Amino acid sequence: MKLLIIGCGGVATVAIHKCCQNPIFTEICIASRTVSKCDALAAKLAPTTSARLTTATVDADSLESLTALMKAFQPHTVLNVALPYQDLTIMDACLACGANYVDTANYEAEDTDDPAWRAVYEKRCKEKGFTAYFDYSWQWAYQEKFKAAGLTALLGTGFDPGVTSVFTAYALKHYFDEIHNIDILDCNGGDHGYPFATNFNPEINLREVSANGSYWENGHWVETKPMAIKREYDFAGVGKKDMYLLHHEEIESLAKNIPHVKRIRFFMTFGQSYLMHMNCLQNVGMLGTTPVEFEGHEIVPIKFLKALLPDPASLGSRTVGKTNIGCIFTGIKDGKERSIYIYNICDHQECYRETGTQAVSYTTGVPAMIGTALVASGKWSGAGVFNVEEFDPDPYMEMLNAYGLPWIVDEHPVLVD
Ligand code: NDP
Q: Is 37 helix (H, G, I), strand (E, B) or coil?
C-alpha cells in the first residue's frame, strides 16, 4: 500500500519509524518543506524496513504543489503530520487525487487577521460559545465531498485527540451503558533542563495554552479565563502535579459523538517555570500572531519567538521522566454507578532510544501510524469524514499495546473534583 507522509518534524519522525515497522505499508514517500530532513530519515530507516522509501519536496500550503506530487506518487492514503494550517489544502488535494486523508490536529488558520476567516470565526464564537482559533467545523464541512468521492478522512489520530477518543469508545463498548463524565488528564512529568521550551511546535503549543479554557457541560460550552481552573493530581509513574483546565479539540467531537455525556473536561500539567515564562511572554506581546514592523521588516512575534526557542526535535536526548495521559470516565453499567481510568505511561528516554525523539512526539506519532494503518487495511472504512471514536476501538487498542503505548485500566480511580 502506497502511503504519502507530509511533514518531517518531531511527530512525523515517530510516525515514519512506526510505519516502517508495519508491513502493510509497502511504499512510503516522505514529503516536506525541507527535503534534507526527509532524506536523512529515509537513509537512516531504509536498512531497517522492507518498505520502499522515497522523498520529495512539497509546499503543503499550495494545492498545485500537493496535487503534482500526489499525481506522480498516487498514494492510497495521505498522513498529514505537517501543521494544522495545512489541513484543508491537503484534504482538497486528496479529493482531487483520490486518496484517503488522515491527520492528528484539526484545522487552525495561520492568519487570524484575515477578514474572511474572522467573519466565520466570530459567528462560530457566538453560536457555539468557545473562542479557540481551532474547531472541527471547517473539516466536518468536507463530509459530503468525501462521501461523494468514496474516500475516508480520519481526523485527529494523535494521543489527544486520538487515543483519548479511542479510550472513550473502548470504555463505552466494554465498561458502560452510559458515560456521563469524561476528564482527560495529560501529564508530562518530563524534564528537559531548559528554563523554557515547548514539547511540540512552539507556535501551535503556545497558541493553545495561552487561550481561554473551556469545558462541555449539559449541552453547552462553559468558557474560563486562561489557566483559571487548577487541580492537583497524583499521577501513576509520575507523582503529584498541578494541572490546568484547557480548551481541547476532542471535547468538541466527543460531545457530538458520545450519547448521554454530561460533562467533558481536559486538564494539562504545567510547571511553575513554564507558566511564569508564558505569562511574561504573553504580557510583553511575544505570543502575538499579527505582524509588527521592526527596523523595516515585518515580523510575527510568535514566529520570531519560535526561532529563538529550542527546536522540540532537539529535546529528546535531554528529556528524562515520563508522561501519563488518559481519561477518567464515570457513568452507569447495569443500573449501577461506576468509574474507570484508562491511561498510558510513556518514558521519554525509552522513546529517544527507539526513535530519537521525546515522548510527546512519540505518543502522537504512534497513534498517527495506527489510525493510518486501520484506514489503509480497510479495518476502519467508510466514505466521509470521521473522528476516531466513531470506529470500533478494539483493533486500535490492540495496536497500541503492540506498537509501544500499552495502556492500563484502573477500575477504582481517584476522581477529579
Ligand atoms: P514540527 O514543527 O516539528 O513539524 C512540522 C513539519 O511540517 C516540519 O517538518 C515542517 O517543515 C513541515 N511543514 C510545515 N509547513 C509546511 C508546509 N507549508 N509544507 C510542507 N511541510 C511543512 O511539528 P510537530 O511534529 O510537533 O507537530 C506535527 C503535528 O502534530 C501538528 O499538526 C501538531 O498540532 C500535531 N500534534 C498533535 C498532537 C495530538 O496528540 N493529537 C500532539 C502534538 C502535536 P520544516 O522542517 O521545513 O519546518
A: helix
Are 301 and 175 a contacting pair, CB within 8 Å? no
| Residue 209, ligand 1, Cβ within 6 A | no
Atom 31 in ligand 1: which residue has the minimum CA distance?
A: 83
Q: Contact, 100 vs 152, CB < 8 A?
A: yes
Residues 6+ apart with CB under 8 A from 387: 136, 154, 155, 156, 161, 165, 250, 253, 257
Phi (first) and psi of residue 179, to 5 degrees = -100, 130
Q: Is the CB of 32 under 6 A from ligand 1?
A: yes
Among 206, 186, 189, 205, residue whose Cα is nearest residue 279: 206
Å from CA of 80 to ligand 1 middle: 9
CATH number belonging to domain 2-155: 3.40.50.720
Q: Out of 32, 65, 110, give the residue to mutate to test ligand 1, the one with the largest number of ligand atoms within 8 Å of its CB.
A: 32
Tell me how far apart the alpha carbons of residues 224 and 243 are, in angstroms, rounded to a whole number. 15
Going residue by residue through the chain, which has 417 residues, state the pLDDT in tens, using 9 for 90 and above. Answer: 999 999 999 999 999 999 999 999 999 999 999 999 999 999 999 999 999 999 999 999 999 999 999 999 999 999 999 999 999 999 999 999 999 999 999 999 988 889 999 999 999 999 999 999 999 999 999 999 999 999 999 999 999 999 999 999 999 999 999 999 999 999 999 999 998 998 888 888 888 888 899 999 999 999 999 999 999 999 999 999 999 999 999 999 999 999 999 999 999 999 888 889 998 999 999 999 889 999 999 999 999 999 999 988 888 899 999 999 999 999 999 999 999 999 999 999 999 999 999 999 999 999 999 999 999 999 999 999 999 999 999 999 999 999 999 999 999 999 999
What are the residue ranges of CATH 3.30.360.10 in the chain? 163-357
From-to residues of CATH 3.40.50.720 in the chain: 2-155
Answer yes or no: is the C-beta of 312 below 6 A from any ligand 1 atom: yes
Ligand 1 pocket mutation, candidates 159, 186, 201, 306, criterion most atoms within 8 A of CB? 201
Q: 104 CA distance to ligand 1 centroid (A)?
A: 10
CB half-sphere exposure, 132, CA atoms < 13 A: 29
CATH fold of 163-357? Dihydrodipicolinate Reductase; domain 2 (3.30.360)
> Which triple of cell numbers denotes residue 83?
501543521
